[in-house]
C-alpha cells in the first residue's frame, strides 16, 4: 500500500499548485519572456520535424504530430508539471520509431531537450516517493532503447536530477512548515497576551470596582442603623441604593467569570501602596466596619510589593463588610529584612475574607448559584506573582485569618 499510493499519484493524482511569484519583478519577466519562448518552441518543433523527415523518412503529417507532441509538454509543465510528464512519457516509446543506425540516440535531440526541461520542472514540486517512481519509470525506456554505451550514463543523469529535485523539494517543504509554525507561534503568543490581559482586567475590576460597590451597598444598608430619625422616603431610597448595588455586584461577578474563563491598558494614575492603607481603613470605618489597623514603616519597599499588600487588605476588608458585618477586623502589616507580612483576622465564626461566599451563619444569603467569587484567587495570584505565599482559613478560637508573605528583593 505504501508503494501503490505514490504510484497511483504519479499516474492519476493531481498536480501540486505552483508556488506564488516571489515579486512583481518575476511577474514582469514572465510577461515579457512568454512571446520569445513561444516563438522558440515553434522553431524547435519545426527543427524536430525537419530532423524526422530527413533522418527517418517520415511523412510531414507524422513528423508534424510527433514534433508538436515533443514540445507541447514544456508550456504545460510551467503550471502542471505532472501532467506534462504524463504527456511526455509515452513519447519515449513512440519517439524511437524509425530510428536509424546512424543516429547516436533513438530519440530526436529536441525531444530529449524538452523531456529534460519537463523533468527539471517536475521534481522540485513533488514528494520523495513520487520522485522515486518518476525516476524509476524514466529508466525503463532508457535501458531498453538507448545504446548500452550511453544507457548507464543517462540513468545516472536521471537519478542525479531526481536527487537534486528531492533536495529542493524538501527544503521548500521545510521552509513552508517553518513559516506555518512561526505563524502558529505568533497566534498563540497573541492569544496568550489577550488572556493575560483579560485576567489582569478581571483582577483589577474585582479589586477596585467591586470594592467600592461593596462599600456603597454596606453604607446604604447600615445607614438606617447609623443615622437616627431618617424619614420613610430616605429609608426607601437607601434600600433602593443597596439593592441596586447588590445587583451590580452580581452582574460584575458574572462578567468577571466570563473574563477569567478564557484566561493592557496601563494605568495612568499612581498605584496605591502602604501609605494609602490609612485612607482605606477610614473608608471601611465609614461603611460600618470596625478596623484596627497597624502598619509598620518599610523603607525602600518596591512598588509592586506595596500594591499587592494594599490589594490584599482591600479585598479582606471588603469581604469582612459583606460576610461578617459587625465583626471587628484587625489588620497588621509588618516589614522585615526579606519579606513584608500582611495579616488580616476577625473574631467571629464567619470569614473575614473568603472567596466571595456568603455563609448563612453570618445572616447573609449565598452568592448567586452558589458560585464562589474571586477574592482569594486574586489575592493568591498577587502573592504568587511576587514569589510569596498566602494562607487563609478559620482560626482555632473562632473567626478567620489571612496571612500573606510577600518577599522583598535585596537592594541592588
Describe the protein's architecture and organization.
This protein is α+β, with helices and mostly antiparallel strands and 412 residues long. The protein has helices at residues 4-12, 24-55, 60-71, 73-79, 81-88, 91-94, 109-122, 128-145, 148-226, 232-261, 277-286, 303-323, 375-385, and strands spanning 291-295, 329-335, 339-346, 389-394, 400-407. Strand 2 and strand 3 form a beta hairpin. Helices cover 62% and strands 8% of the residues. 30% of the residues are buried. Among the domains are: 4-146, no CATH class; 271-412, Heat Shock Protein 90. Mean pLDDT is 79; it is low at 263-267 and 349-372. Helix 4 (73-79) runs antiparallel to helix 5 (81-88), helix 9 (148-226) packs across helix 12 (303-323) and helix 12 runs antiparallel to helix 13. The chain has a five-stranded mixed sheet with strand order 1-2-3-5-4, covered by helices on one side. The chain contains 13 helices and five strands.
Could you give a short description of this structure?
The protein has helices at 4-12, 24-55, 60-71, 73-79, 81-88, 91-94, 109-122, 128-145, 148-226, 232-261, 277-286, 303-323, 375-385; strands at 291-295, 329-335, 339-346, 389-394, 400-407.
Please supply descriptive tags for the structure shown above.
13 helices, alpha+beta, rod-shaped, Heat Shock Protein 90, about 60% helix, 5 strands
Topology of this structure?
Layout: H1 4-12, H2 24-55, H3 60-71, H4 73-79, H5 81-88, H6 91-94, H7 109-122, H8 128-145, H9 148-226, H10 232-261, H11 277-286, E1 291-295, H12 303-323, E2 329-335, E3 339-346, H13 375-385, E4 389-394, E5 400-407
Parallel strand pairs: 1-2
Antiparallel strand pairs: 2-3, 3-5, 4-5
Amino acid at each position: 500500500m505504501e508503494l501503490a499510493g505514490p504510484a497511483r499519484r504519479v499516474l492519476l493524482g493531481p498536480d501540486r499548485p505552483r508556488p506564488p511569484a516571489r515579486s512583481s519583478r518575476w511577474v514582469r519577466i514572465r510577461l515579457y519572456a512568454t512571446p520569445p519562448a513561444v516563438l522558440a518552441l515553434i522553431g524547435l518543433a519545426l527543427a524536430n520535424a525537419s530532423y524526422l523527415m530527413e533522418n527517418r523518412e517520415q511523412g510531414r503529417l507524422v513528423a508534424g504530430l510527433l514534433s508538436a507532441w515533443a514540445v507541447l509538454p514544456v508550456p504545460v509543465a510551467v503550471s502542471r508539471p505532472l501532467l506534462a510528464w504524463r504527456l511526455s512519457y509515452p513519447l519515449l516509446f513512440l519517439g524511437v520509431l524509425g530510428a536509424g543506425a546512424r543516429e547516436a540516440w533513438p530519440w530526436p535531440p529536441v525531444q530529449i531537450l524538452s523531456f529534460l526541461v519537463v523533468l527539471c520542472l517536475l521534481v522540485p514540486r513533488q514528494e520523495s516517493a513520487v520522485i522515486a517512481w518518476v525516476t524509476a519509470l524514466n529508466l525503463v525506456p532508457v535501458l531498453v532503447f538507448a545504446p548500452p554505451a550511453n544507457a548507464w550514463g543517462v540513468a545516472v543523469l536521471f537519478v542525479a536530477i531526481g536527487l537534486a529535485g528531492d533536495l529542493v523539494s524538501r527544503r521548500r517543504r521545510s521552509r513552508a512548515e517553518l513559516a506555518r509554525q512561526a505563524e502558529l507561534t505568533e497566534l498563540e503568543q497573541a492569544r496568550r497576551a489577550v488572556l493575560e490581559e483579560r485576567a489582569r482586567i478581571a483582577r483589577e475590576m474585582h479589586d477596585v470596582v467591586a470594592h467600592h460597590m461593596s462599600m456603597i451597598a454596606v453604607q446604604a444598608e447600615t445607614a438606617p442603623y447609623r443615622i437616627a430619625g431618617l424619614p420613610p422616603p430616605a429609608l426607601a431610597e437607601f434600600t433602593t441604593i443597596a439593592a441596586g448595588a447588590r445587583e451590580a455586584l452580581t452582574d460584575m461577578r458574572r462578567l468577571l467569570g466570563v473574563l477569567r474563563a478564557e484566561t493592557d491598558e496601563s494605568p495612568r494614575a499612581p498605584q496605591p501602596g502602604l501609605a494609602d492603607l490609612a485612607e482605606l481603613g477610614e473608608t471601611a470605618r465609614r461603611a460600618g466596619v470596625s478596623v484596627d489597623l497597624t502598619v509598620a514603616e518599610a523603607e525602600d519597599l518596591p512598588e509592586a510589593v506595596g500594591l499587592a499588600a494594599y490589594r490584599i487588605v482591600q479585598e479582606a476588608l471588603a469581604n469582612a463588610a459583606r460576610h461578617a458585618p459587625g465583626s471587628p477586623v484587625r489588620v497588621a502589616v509588618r516589614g522585615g529584612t526579606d519579606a513584608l507580612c500582611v495579616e488580616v483576622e476577625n473574631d467571629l465564626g464567619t470569614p473575614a475574607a473568603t472567596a466571595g461566599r456568603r455563609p448563612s451563619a453570618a445572616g447573609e444569603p449565598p452568592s448567586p448559584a452558589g458560585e464562589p467569587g474571586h477574592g482569594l484567587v486574586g489575592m493568591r495570584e498577587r502573592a504568587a506573582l511576587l514569589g510569596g505565599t498566602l494562607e487563609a482559613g478559620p482560626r482555632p478560637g473562632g473567626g478567620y485569618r489571612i496571612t500573606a508573605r510577600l518577599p522583598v528583593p535585596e537592594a541592588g
